[in-house]
Amino acid sequence: MQEPSAHDPAAPTAPAPLGLGLAALGRPAYITAGRDASFGDDRGIDAMRGRAHEMLDVAWARGIRFIDAARSYGRAEEFLGSWLAAHPERRAELAIESKWGYAYVGGWRMDAEVHERKEHSLAMLDTQWPESLAALGGAPDRYLVHSLTPESPALADDALLDRLRELAASGIAVGISTSGPHQADALDAARVLPDSPFATVQATWNLLEPSVGPALARAHADGWFVVVKEAVANGRLTAAGDEADAAALAAADGQALDALAIGAARAQPWADVVLSGAVEPAQLDANLASRAPASDAAALASLAEDPTAYWAARSARAWS
After folding, report:
1. What is the pTM of this model?
2. Residues 76-105: pLDDT tens digits?
3. How many separate domains does the chain show?
4. Quick check: is 52 in a domain?
5. Which SUPFAM superfamilies does the record associate with it (predicted)?
6. CA–CA distance, 265 with 15 (Å, rounded to integer)
7. 279: which DSSP letter?
């Protein structure tokens, strides 16, 4: 499909469109605050498939045309693929993004000791690419290395990089997603690789953790496609969180906290798509109603946490 074009720096910046992320819809457990209130105890595969299909239908009806999944999001690719199979006429209008490099190992259990396993190797790519093709019923438009960090082998493995270059030459937009306190370093390293296969990035940016912003601006200026994930900080920047200062700013701005957080991300001039992790139609509608904050920029900036502390707290979150 024709995706949102890069921003013209000489033109007024329109809010970035929303995409729908399936991280919380493809598996029974995740780290989003307030998850129990949305899902209850029915986390069976059929129930989760039904909820995913419902949210995809709602997103389509609301005009959302960018969908994000990953091999590690449980059955997210499978759920998306079965929805696409039921609506084949919609595929040409959609941009489908997925990711490789993590495997889901939770066994569809809430109490799994480990939910994901990371491996950035050529063998992993060669295993997961055909799995993505089979689950989705065809190739995604964008395929990203999942959670690239500066020490990832994906930045130095020549055979792997050549395979990614082959994918890019075939018409797949190859890219990276980033996580951790050194997102900017990982992104800059991927961007300046000789004959880099990468031209798209999905990064965590939110009012609590905006440190990757300058690196995203550099990537966007170089023509990269920029997708923002975790704009509501895994539920911390929603009514289910406990961020009193952010909530007070949102109230003063006349928005719900999640709308303030999403609106702040959509207002960034380098953002091409901002993902909503909504699992209920009302959540998606609130995200769509977001607008750029009118709050003082310094007040918003004061919400930022030390990146190392932010990511340590994220790593400690319970799966529920």
Report:
1. 0.95
2. 999 999 999 999 999 999 999 999 999 999
3. 1
4. yes
5. NAD(P)-linked oxidoreductase
6. 9
7. S
